[in-house]
Amino acid sequence: MELRLKDGKYDSIGARLCTVSGAEELAQRVMMKLAARRGSFWPLPDYGSRLYRLVSGERPKDRELAVRQYVAEALSDESGVTLTDVQISYPSDDTMRLRLYFSWSGGSFSTDQIIRS
Predict the structure, then answer these.
(1) Closest of 24, 31, 109 to residue 71, by C-alpha
(2) Rounded to whole angstroms, how far apart are CA atoms 50 and 40?
(3) Distance, C-alpha 34 to centroid of its chain
(4) 50 compared with 4, residue with greater pLDDT
(5) Residue 75 and residue 36: Cα distance in Å, rounded?
(6) pLDDT tens for each residue of 54-87
(7) Element (H, E) at 17
(8) Which of 15, 63, 80, 111 is the most exposed place for a label (fewest CB within 10 A)?
(9) d(C-alpha 91, C-alpha 12), whole Å
(10) CB of 23 within 8 A of CB of 107?
(11) Dihedral sign from CA coordinates of 103, 64, 117, 76
(12) Is the Cα dihedral 20, 87, 52, 84 positive or negative?
């Protein structure tokens, strides 16, 4: 069981912090790992992903393969979680939106990642 995050802050009801478990806990942990820049948290240098490199660092035809590689790298310590589908869209010239679909032993979930150059 972990503390629930809402808009980047701990969620609470009055003075009591809210928690998450099961699919919600796993989805929150996955989203945090994918949103963090790999290497930016010095106590855990392997925490995070390299998804931020996609806009300027990968050719468009290689992006889905790179997404799959970066997600696998970021989630290497999450047993039983499988990336099942990737959808890439471009809402603006400097923004890429990733819709990532996952399966795990308890079901499935999806997450959005916004990457800006």
Answers:
(1) 31
(2) 11
(3) 3
(4) 50
(5) 12
(6) 876 677 788 899 999 999 999 999 988 999 999 9
(7) strand 16-17
(8) 15
(9) 33
(10) yes
(11) positive
(12) positive
Closest CA to 83 of 93, 98, 95, 97: 98
Please give the Cα distance from 48 to 116 (Å, whole number): 16
Kindly state the helix (H) or strand (E) to which residue 72 belongs, with its residue range.
helix 63-74
What is the model's pTM?
A: 0.84
Instruction: Count other Cβ atoms within 10 Å, centred on residue 100.
Output: 22
- Here the tokens at position 68 are 């799959």
Amino acid present at 93: D
The 10 Å Cβ neighbour count of residue 109 is 18
Residues 6+ apart with CB under 8 A from 87: 98, 99, 101
Token pair 């802050």 in the structure block, residue: 9
Cβ of 1: how many Cβ atoms within 10 Å?
A: 8
